[in-house]
Every structure is written in structure tokens, then in C-alpha cells.
What does this fold into?
Amino acid sequence: MKHIFTILVLVAFCSLNAQDFKAYRFYTQKGKEIKTDKLISELSDYDVVFFGENHNSSINHWLQLKVTEALYQKKNGQLILGAEMFERDNQPQLNQYLNGTFDAKKLKDSARLWTNFPTDYKPLVDFAKAKKLDFVATNVPRRYASQTAKEGLESLNNLPEKDKAYMAQLPVKVTLETPGYPEMKAMMGDHADGTKTMNFIAAQAIKDATMAESILKNFKSGKTFIHYNGNYHSKEFGGIYWYIRQKNPTLKMAVISVFESEDPELKIPEKDYKPTDFNLVIPADMTKTY
It folds into this structure.
């Protein structure tokens, strides 16, 4: 009997001291933890959902897939997918993969895929393919963003009309009133050339404005458009979110932002935490995909 008592005490002690490894936690804008079933229920009421990401975070990408799968079930399939990682002029190739005309190799050979596509984005595209969902290539072709950074936004006016079809309608408003853009200016430093700095910000703006326009063109009433993008493109309700608000302020939109934490309990970070509608906190030492 004495031995049984000792064993029970040891088990209880070990249970109290066992490490509970947390992989993620979601919080509302008010700082209250929200469970995933409640999160999915709330997201289903939105027209557009921005799921921000750290591009190399394995748990971030896994959660994008799981949330998408759950949202598909909750919405009875009334879902549209879109992503920063695909550029407008690669929409035909993406469509051919979705309808089975292209295999994975043909898609890789014909489209400008990110290097982490096989691990991080292919599962989302394959889900869209299996469920026969639209997957929209929302971003501006990178060559035009690069041109803007070097030569300014005005240089895009000289492009042929067929090229302009791959970007937001010109002129694109660029203002430091857009959340996140003043931070970009500060990153360039006080001694940076003013024109170079604004060209750099304008390159971000042509991406954000093009993704916003792509979402607006492909959104369908009654469906939820879930968009995957780098956290910076929607943080603090800036970027893509801001540009959509200028065109259609009536759309109900939600932003999921992501933050890393050193705290094993994944409590809300004390530093640089600017919450949006929903906020994903993940371990800073979580496995990176590259």
C-alpha cells in the first residue's frame, strides 16, 4: 500500500511539472484567447479574410491549410482562395493546374513559383483543386514592382496596355497615411534619398493596390475570399486592406496577424504587438521551412 501511495505521489508531481508545449494560440483584438472552432465560426461571417504569414513558418502554413479546410466545411464550400505568392500573369498556368491540364512539373516549369511552394503553398492549391475552388493569382508581376522601385510609379504609364492589365489601374495613390508605410520610410533612415525612399514605398503600394483590385474583381457575394499574404501586407489594417477600403468600404473584412513569442505559454507579446481582428501567436523557435 505504501508503494502504491508513493507511485501516486510521483505521478501527481510529474503531472504538475510536465511541460505543456504550445504550438500556437489565437487572440481577439481585445486580448482574449479564442479557440479555433469559435474562430472559424466568426470568420465565416466575413466577406474577405486576410491570413497574414511569416513566409518561412511551418506552423503558420499548416494553420492556413487547417483554417481553410474548416472554413470550407462551415461555409458549405462557398469559398474563394487567393494569394500574394502568385502573380496575375501566371493565372492561366495556375488555372491549368487546377483543372488538371498541367501536372506539378508543368506548373513549376511555366510559372514563377516561390522556392517554398512544394512545402508551403502546394497543399493549399491542391485543396482548391480537389474541391474545385477558384484560386486567384492576386499579385503584380515582380518585374513591375522592381521597375517602380528603380524608376518610380510614373514609369509604369509608359508600358503597353496589355502589361497594364496585370497591375492595379493607374494612377495608384501612394500616401504615408497608409498603416505600415511610415514604418517603411523610417527603415530607410533619415539620410536616405527622398526619391529613392518614396519609390521603395511605391513598389510596395503597387503590390498592395494590385492585390486589392484582384480581390475586388474576383469576390462573389455570399462567399468568403480568404487571402494568404505576408504579414506586412495587412498588418495594422494597412496594405491590401487599406486599398480595398478606399474602393469598397462596405465589405466586411477580417485580418489575422501573426506574432512570434519567446514565452512558452505563448502569452501576448509585450513588445511590438499591434493587434488586428484576430492574432496568431507562435513560438519564436518553431521550425522554419527555409
